[in-house]
Amino acid sequence: RSIDRRSAEMSLAYVLTAFFFFGIGALAGLLQGLVRGGVITLPEWINYYQILTAHGVLMGLVFTTFFIVGFFYAGMAKTITLPKLSVKLGWLGWVVMFFGTVMAVATISTGEASVMYTFYAPLKASPWFYIGSTLLVIGSWIAGAGMTYAYTQWRKQNTNQRSPLFTFMVMATLVLWYVATLGVAAEMLFQLIPWSFGWTDTVNVVLSRMLFWFFGHPLVYFWLMPAYAAWYNCVPKIIGGKIFSDSLARVVFILFILLSIPVGFHHQLTEAGISEKWKIVHVALTLGVVLPSMMTAFSSFATFEAVGRAKGARGVFGFFKKLPYGDVRFFAPFMGMLFFIPAGIGGIINTSNQMNVVVHNTIWVTGHFHITVGAAVALTFFGIAYWLIPSLMGRQLTKGAHRAGIIQTLFWTVGMLIMSGAMHFMGLLGVPRRTDYTTYMDDPLGLSWMKYETLMAIGGVLLFISAVLMICNAIYLWKFAPVGETEFPMAENSLEVRQQTPRILENWKVWIAILAFLILVSYGYPIYDAIVHAPPGAPGMKTW
Ligand code: HAS
């Protein structure tokens, strides 16, 4: 095994659980695509919004969080080793997360929680759904505490040293996660749970949506930052290169800490109850949070170019010919990177106030998040899984597994291109998101959309095939691949290089203080306003 046995078993438990729930989420996604495309109808006892919620919760919240925690623990064990207490907290976090997920999934299955992954009030779910989701978050805090403990111990023993880049990235992501989840925790504890138990009669909808997006936008960077951690640390090692710049990579993560949270209103640009002035502040900061991704694109290109030229590449783009496309550990994340180029352009369109009016609440937005989290992030996670699982198990990533992985990646890539391409196009025609199958009473306009809905369903089928292949490959690498070694690719800088990185970048107090200031400026008054001048609360609509 590439890391110690106790840490490996715990990390593996997270990764395998992630793929278990990913499988159920993928099935819900397939059904949803086929229903919307008019290919199948659901039996009476299943509701479209039930599978929409299952798909969103399982893919967006459960698969991602389990995978991220597992990957982070493994990477920390590789770079700084984990004390016993961290491993124990890791297991405790897993139990709480698992238990919470089962509760949430159970309420979705009984139809008592068809409120989608955004929990939009005044749609009302069973309190046990909210409690289950809260436990998922609390479990991730416990797991995060385990990693934070390992980090603080390491710093005590290595005073004045910059931490390894991967560990630094884990800590930056955790700082973001702790602060961001305070928003959703407040929404759950003070609003949704008391209201769904019937202890309060109404809910302040404006406030609940604000609190959700306080969490909801940084959530997307909580998905992205682990993928970036792999792009900065693992991909360079796989292709035989080095980390382009230690300082640049750290600045990127600090920028995410500062700018991911005070931007939530870009999800609410068309909503009443928030003044235009505050929306513009959030839009301006959103354009700031594009910067770390631009820097990542720059440094990824630079790494590829350096490797290609070292292998004798000529011409401006000749280095692309020298990259190892036959290696699934590179090929899958590389496909993700390609998706992220149009995805980023789409994000900038979304946040541009006037253009948001055109795309908001259309299926364009669904297309956007399928090529961000569903492609750039998911493909990177698949690429990681191909080396992480055998490396933790002490097995080999065989040539056959590489080939199977590339086929699986191609299915995902083509399926996603078709599905999200259709979604983006339909969005521009005005097709709404979050709708069941409908031809709008056979309106000619509604009927004219159907061919694209069918195309979307075809993309969904390819994605489902890919998901099944992924799970089969994961099981093979976990249980059946030949015993042996698989490299844990981590392009760490030498201590000498790390020490040249400005010390302030690891001074968390400074960054948390600036973040608190930005949050106060961007959210302080709007939240106060939403509480003090709240319109009459909504009584709520039970979803069952
Ligand atoms: Fe977003 C809605 C704006 C990034 C996810 N987003 C969503 C929703 C989700 C989501 C889930 O402003 C829907 C929520 C819902 O249910 O309502 N988003 C942005 C912006 C960015 C952005 C400005 N989003 C993401 C990421 C996500 C994600 C990342 C998940 C992981 N998004 C919005 C807005 C909305 C929104 C509005 C609300 C819309 C509405 O009205 O409802 C930026 O962070 C994007 C910056 C990205 C770049 C790209 C850099 C490119 C790189 C690749 C390099 C490639 C290489 C390969 C090296 C600038 C790093 C080269 C090889 C070659 C051969 C060329």
What labels would you give this structure?
544 residues, mainly alpha, Four Helix Bundle (Hemerythrin (Met), subunit A), Cytochrome C Oxidase, Chain A, two-stranded parallel sheet, 17 helices, 2 strands, binds heme-as
Helical proportion, percent range: over 70%
**In the CATH scheme, what's the topology name of the domain at 336-506?**
Cytochrome C Oxidase, Chain A
Query: What gross morphology would you assign?
Result: globular
Overall SS class = mainly alpha
Instruction: Give the ordered list of helices and strands.
Output: HHHEHHHHHHHHHHHHHHE
What is the terminal-to-terminal distance? Answer: 49 Å
Question: How is this structure best described in words?
Answer:
This protein is an all-alpha fold and 544 residues long. Among the domains are: 1-161, Four Helix Bundle (Hemerythrin (Met), subunit A) (Up-down Bundle); 336-506, Cytochrome C Oxidase, Chain A. Helix content is 73%, strand content 1%. It contains 17 helices and two strands. It has helices spanning 5-36, 48-79, 84-109, 127-157, 165-197, 205-238, 246-259, 276-289, 291-310, 328-351, 353-359, 363-393, 399-429, 444-448, 450-480, 495-499, 508-532, and strands at residues 123-124, 541-542. A two-stranded parallel ribbon has the order 1-2. Helix 7 packs antiparallel against helix 9. It is globular and about 60 Å long. The model has no long low-confidence stretch (mean pLDDT 96). The protein binds heme-as.
